Amino acid sequence: MDRMIYTALTGMDAAMTRQRAVASNLANANTPGFRAETFATTPWHLKAESMDVRGYAQGAVRGADLSQGEVTRTGRTLDVAVNGEALIAFQTTAGEEVYSRRGDMEVDATGRLINGEGLQAMGTNGPITVPPGWRVSFGSDGTVFAADPAAPDAQGEEVARLNLVSPAGSAVVKDLDNQLRVRSGGVLPNDPEAQIVTGVLEASNVDASGTLVEMIEAQRSFERRVQIISTAEQLDQSSASLMSLR
């Protein structure tokens, strides 16, 4: 009896983890550049010398769906979207390099080039900063130009180049902060062929309607396992009643 309960309990835990992943996807359906979390359940077996003595389910977020989202024109100079599969490198407040497709850029009061999450954009030579108050624009290869507003006719000066990296052949994982990282803790190589488009934003690649269906399925999966535990309790009570008649 305890085997059935244990199997159902681990299934409930996997269903709860799936619900959390689906809820995160649904909450970020309108977040620019968001990559949907992918979930998988793996069956495991505890083996004795001659047979499997117990089976259980282990569910976890296995990674992210890196397929491209819909690109929408905004007309805003600092909005950028990456062509192809390349990612933009950013730096966290802890100094760690992470990766994202979110390109709603702006310059903060200290001159740091950041995206909508407050992550500082990384250039090929380190974190990107520009003179505060200067006008910023981008070239199609990710080059960052800054122009002095006091000289409106002057051409922008090249101050950096966005570090556009290639995830091809690397194990990229997604953590709880929604950022992409290299599984081994390394960094992705620069992609010199990567191109960006300005004045547009890439939307989340979450399918909102499909995610709602997933949420319902995850909830029903949890309820089925609750029912199994309830059935196990009833069987246990019935067995106890039969034993008391002897």
Molecular structure report:
- The chain contains two helices and 18 strands.
- It has helices spanning 2-27, 208-244; strands at residues 37-47, 52-64, 71-73, 80-82, 87-91, 97-100, 106-107, 113-114, 120-123, 126-127, 135-138, 143-147, 157-161, 164-165, 172-174, 180-182, 196-198, 200-202.
- Strands 5, 6, 9, 10 and 14 form a five-stranded antiparallel sheet that branches.
Give the arrangement of secondary structure elements.
Layout: H1 2-27, E1 37-47, E2 52-64, E3 71-73, E4 80-82, E5 87-91, E6 97-100, E7 106-107, E8 113-114, E9 120-123, E10 126-127, E11 135-138, E12 143-147, E13 157-161, E14 164-165, E15 172-174, E16 180-182, E17 196-198, E18 200-202, H2 208-244
Antiparallel strand pairs: 1-2, 3-18, 4-17, 5-6, 5-9, 5-14, 7-8, 9-10, 11-12, 12-13, 15-16
Helix pairs in contact: 1-2
